[in-house]
Amino acid sequence: MTLHFKLLIVEDEMIIAEDMAESLRRMGYEVPVVVPSGEMAIAKAAEIQPDLVLMDINLQGDMDGIETAALIRAKFQIPVIFLTAYADVPTLERAKQAEPFGYLLKPFEERELQTTIEIAIKRNQAEATMRVSLKKEQELTELKSRFMTMAAHDFRTPLTTIQTSTELLQNYGHKWPEEKKHLHYNRIKNAITMMTKLLDDVLFVGKEEAGKLEFNPQPLDLQSFCGEIIEEIQQSDRDSHPILFEFSGDCQTATMDEQLLRQILTNLLSNAMKYSPPGSPVRFQLQCQDQQARFQIQDSGIGISAEDQQRLFEPFYRAKNVGNISGTGLGLAIVKKCTEVHHGTLIVHSEIGTGTTFTVVLPLVSEDESPRF
User: Fold this and answer.
1) Which CATH topology does 6-108 take?
2) Which of 7, 73, 8 is closest to 36 using CA atoms?
3) What is the pLDDT of residue 255?
4) Domain Response regulatory: where (predicted)?
């Protein structure tokens, strides 16, 4: 019977080590190697990533078993059981500092060895599960905190606009010319649009987190579709950014999820214009070849630092240099997920003060392998 647990034995008395390895193999454990020194143990732990290390305290070389165990635990989070013929108090006190998962005094019985290993492996599995749960809890807490911060700011701004314009229309609208009244009506309309987009983004992320994001690839003419997206984006662009669209290849016979692709392109184009100087062009290239569609959107905006690029696709995260430019920090997280659902790739290249280029590569024909993600 194979237990699918890999053990590393660190023992400088090779007859004892090989005898132990043979016993463990009979029990069903995998023992790929036996090493006699701390230095070799660290190298092998990195190479084979064992589930457990059985470590003699007295070893050949410059490092004893206690030093070696402490390093293995710190670098690889691999549990260690100490094997030793010594039970003196100073040795035991030193051994505690390495946080071992067990301590066996030589000579020991096979049953004692097996029980100690089983307990150590189960304890390590429980601790690993606890670490994952704790990490998820921390991520959720941070996500909630970011959401509350975002909601407090990004809802307040359009609500203030709606309230102010409504009060002004109520109090002075009967005195104003139609042009001035339309100005405030448009402000209210834009504020509602902003809040609707915010809620849509939050709901999209919520669906994805809950595993309820639908994927429905359909035949799509990418050239025409991109033209429609550009027209929609430019209608809401107040700063007159020309979008310079170029395409090449046969882009009329794709199969993709139209709604998810709309999320990708709308968010990338909107960001390119939002973070660029008024009037500066945004370059949009579509290239279809080798069964792939390559969408590239380039701006000459504020750019993104290397540090911020590491967290750029986390929900609610925003780069440190955005200043007073409004945004939720959800757009790029949505772009990343929509790209992954299409089994595509997303690449960002950016320099502070120079601009940013996003490249999305998707299969020209996406198959509906699973309806939900």
Assistant:
1) Rossmann fold (3.40.50)
2) 8
3) 95
4) 6-121
